[in-house]
Amino acid sequence: MIVLGLDPGYAIVGYGAIDTNKGKHKLLCYGAITTPAGMEMSRRLLEISRDMRTLLDTVKPDMVAVEELFFNNNITTGIQVAQARGVILAACAERGLTPVAYTPSQVKQAVVGYGKAEKKQVMEMTRMMLSLKAVPKPDDAADALAIALCHAHTAGSSMPTK
User: What is the set of domains in the chain, with CATH numbers?
Assistant: First the structure.
């Protein structure tokens, strides 16, 4: 089963795809969709939408997992990320996919075993679980892979095997 993990943003959308089968995970691809700073927000959203459609058509995921939004102190940034997340969800819906959302603490719990783990711990466990030589860059891509692993572990018992 191919799981695509997504870490939403309006400047950077991290993505990571894994093939998971009977508790074993294989890295397929990872990277980031980026939009230039200073670009009008409507243009950024259009670019994210186009790139998401291309990514979905290339990866052909069976499942999509996306990070749930949480708002810190900057509400403006949160709103912009929410807009980008909406575009991402719409692109998935166009392809007949219903993304499953996970909070950061759920991702940490699934990958590290502790819901308040440090970011470095999550990145290192992601690297180890996928047998990688180094932590994927950018950080947004590593986060997206952790989200995909979270879904593989959380939904593992209900996911069909190949």
Answer: 2-154 (3.30.420.10)
